[in-house]
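Researcher: Good morning. I'm working through a list of sequences from a screen, and I'd like to move beyond sequence-only analysis. For each chain I'm collecting a predicted structure so we can compare shapes side by side. This is the next one on the list. No need for commentary yet; just the structure.
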Amino acid sequence: MTKGTRTAAAVAGVGLAAVVAGMFLPWFRSGTVLRDSFQIIGVIKSLGFLRGDTLELLLYAWFAIIPVVTLSVVAYTLGLSRTAATICAFLAIFTGTISGGATVESGGGETSLGIAGTGPTVTLIGSLVALVGAVGIFVGRRRSARRIAGGEP
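Model: Good morning. Structure tokens for this chain:
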């Protein structure tokens, strides 16, 4: 494994850590109460919205993010760097899309009811960093494979 691949994996790891941290930061503001992303899903579920809707599947997929991050880290640890990078890239696209939409909707305004900017913004930045790291793993693996395949550096 090349130094560039290890560096890209470290960048992806930092991005994934930021994604997980952002999930536990405030995503919604209601008066003086701040709620993280998991609490919001609990509120939506308890109010009975989205029964049988396809959006309900996406809400439940949000609970799988932390195990999928763990799967990506374990895959990289076992030497399956392309598998880990693929998992990381799909995860970054999924979390980046959701957090990007929430970041845009928050608008940065400090209202008493609405989307808080902290959690979505940290998750979006983490998603972008993780995606850059995943792409770096693929690029690093491709360069090292080309040098080995040619026979001479």
